[in-house]
Amino acid sequence: MARAIASHAQSLGARVMPSVKLANWLLTLLQAQRSFYDAQMTPTPASPKLQDLFNAQYAASRQHIEVSLDLRRHRLLRMKALIDDHGAALAQAVQKRRIVQS
Q1: How far apart are alpha carbons 86 and 94 in whole angstroms?
Q2: Residue 55 lies in a domain
Q3: In the chain, which residue ranges form alpha helices assigned H by DSSP?
Q4: Predicted confidence (pLDDT) at residue 4 exceeds the cutoff of 70
Q5: For position 33, what pLDDT does the model report?
Q6: What is the pLDDT of residues 33-72, one digit of tens each?
Q7: What is the pLDDT at residue 60?
């Protein structure tokens, strides 16, 4: 877009210099915004300890793929108790994270 502006500015003759400067400034601004966006969207690597924990959880989840209905029910009841006991704190943490990311 900025290059198109610069090209158009060159065709205008007398006003070329200010237009080219503006186009270069816009190009620089767009590149800076893109760099900032890319940096925000690049996932940060997990610490080795955290990565080990994720790997262990994944491995454990794959060991017992076929689980009984009773075990599933027990896990859901534990999850319900967790949400009942700590739901407000979890919701507050999620809301705080959203505010920080905005």
Answers
A1: 12
A2: no
A3: 2-10, 16-41, 48-63, 69-101
A4: no
A5: 72
A6: 777 666 666 666 678 888 888 899 888 888 877 888 999 8
A7: 85
Q: Is residue 90 part of a domain?
A: yes
- What domain range is 18 assigned to? 2-41
C-alpha 17, offset from chain centre: 40
Do residues 16 and 26 make contact, with C-beta atoms less than 8 angstroms apart?
no
Is 31 part of a structural domain of the chain?
A: yes
Residues 42 and 35: their CA atoms lie apart, in Å, by: 11
Q: How far is CA 65 from the centre of its chain?
A: 30
Token pair recorded at residue 6: 């610069």
Question: Which amino acid is located at 9 in the chain?
Answer: A
Q: Does the reported pTM lie above 0.85?
A: no
Angle between helices 16-41 and 2-10 (to 10 degrees): 170
Structural domain count, the chain: 2
Is 9 in contact with 23 (CB distance < 8 Å)? yes
The two three-digit tokens of residue 80, written as one number: 């319900």
